[in-house]
Every structure is written in structure tokens, then in C-alpha cells.
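Session log. Operator J.P. requested a structure for one protein chain; no other inputs attached. Running the standard single-chain path with C-alpha cell output.
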Amino acid sequence: QVQLVESGGGLVQAGGSLRLSCAASGRTFSSYAMGWFRQAPGKEREFVAAISVSGSSTDYADSVKGRFTISRDNAKNTVYLQMNSLKPGDTAVYYCAARAGRVAIVQELFHLWGQGTTVTVSS
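Structure written below.
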């Protein structure tokens, strides 16, 4: 069973950058597609980005395209979310998630979740 632990959240001014990390325990990380989701205060959790097992395929929510980049290092059992040009609307708790199989953007298809890391973007 893979366990996921996010880190890298914090407070940043609008226009700034943060890099989130999600460290996975277990030896099967390289067989999981990974995703990042976020939940803003008072809103539903939403898809942000996803990456395939090999890292060759990625997908992004329209709201973050061109600003966020998802990547993974299977040797380090870690997936990253580089967030640039941050906006106050990006303020949320960011969750890392894993699923066995193909890359997906629907959160119901992910069966492993981290506890989340909070990102706050000030104007």
C-alpha cells in the first residue's frame, strides 16, 4: 500500500512561485498514475494536474495551464507540482492522489490520498 505525504505549501504573494512535493512510501510508486487536486474554502475539491506512470503524459485544468507543471521522479518516489504566477484564486488545500493504471482527471478514480498541504496566495 502506498502512503502519500505532501509538503511545500505556505504563504506567497501573488505572482510568486511554490513547489509542492508528494513523497510516496512503498515499492510500487512507479506503477501509479498521480494527480494533484485542490479544495478552496467553501468549494468542492477540483482537479489540478495529473501525470502518467512514466511521466510521458500529463493533463492540466484550464485554470492552471501554462502556470503549473506536474512532474515525477520515480527513483525518489516523489511527484511535484511547480506553481508559478500564483493568483489569490489558487489559495486552497492541495492534495496528492494516486491510482493504479492510466492517468486520469476524475478524482473518484483515485483511491489513495494524502492529507493535503495548504497554499495561501495574498494579493
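Operator note: Residues 99 and 110 are 5 Å apart (CA to CA).
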